[in-house]
Amino acid sequence: MATETITADSTAGSLNLKARGSRMLMDGTDPKFGDWRDDLLRDGYAVIKGAIPEDRALQYADKIGLGYDRNDPETVHPDKLPIVNEKGMILNYGACHEDFVWAVRSEPGVVGAFEKLYDTEDLIVSFDAINYGFANRKNLPPNTPWPHQDQDPDRPGFRCLQGLVNLLPNGPNDGGLIVCRGGHATSEQFHNDIRGTEERIPAWTKEWYGYTDKGMKWLEEHGHEWIKVEAAPGDLIVWDSRTPHYNVPVKSKQDRMAIYTCFMPVADASQEDLIRKKIAFEIYSLARVGTTHWPNALHTGTNKTTRNGKPDFVQRDRPLNDPVLSERAFKLTGIPYIRAQ
Q: What pLDDT sits at residue 283?
């Protein structure tokens, strides 16, 4: 597919990207910061309170469904919902580009957290999924545990900070993220100890590793505890991609809704990465597809959707409400950083 190269206009700021500066390295050499970054260093995850005002977060939570009403449990039915996989992810329909999803990504408190961690405003963002954990799943596939890390075991070190913005009250029984506290710090030791001694769980990408029973036992023996992360509407949760994690189903009457938001410095992406991001966004065509959590678009998705093995009765390549991006949000697509040929 041919792509048109786009360069930053005169208002987009300098493309002389900052060097590493004082960005966090997560390798034991970082100083004490006196804020959530210390939690991230110690535990492998952190909760950034009030990244979005609570009233605005609750408004974002109402933006889903065909005939779904989150105040009516009887509408938690496939006929009333987009295709939601067993992990609660909405991956198709251009949903990752809905205007409210881009609004969440563009929130100053969300972008600002990653600017602080990486010490740069020159960031790109993933086109990642919406996650909806329903309190009433009787008509939907069950969510079973899938402990994993989202990083190639053969490429150790801090490479990616994942994130999600929580949009509904999320207590101990409301489903959502569970993390293995401190697992990031022993990740390299873990993989060195276990490599070649187990039958790996099949993965569609090297940037995913699933923990077997043997791996889970290793984590327990090395003193790691699994923690259910709790958050209020508007809180941002971040975690090192080496930290073992998964999501758990809702046990209460409270739905769980989150928008995955992951940023990385443009300096960490190649020009080929940025061109892939442009193709995924396709500002000049009808396509709006997603990526994984990797902002440099290591993998891109599709909007072709099936329901019960047949094409879904809803097929959509663009979101219901296409975003109108601010200058700041457009830079997050990575497109303005593509060099002219």
A: 64
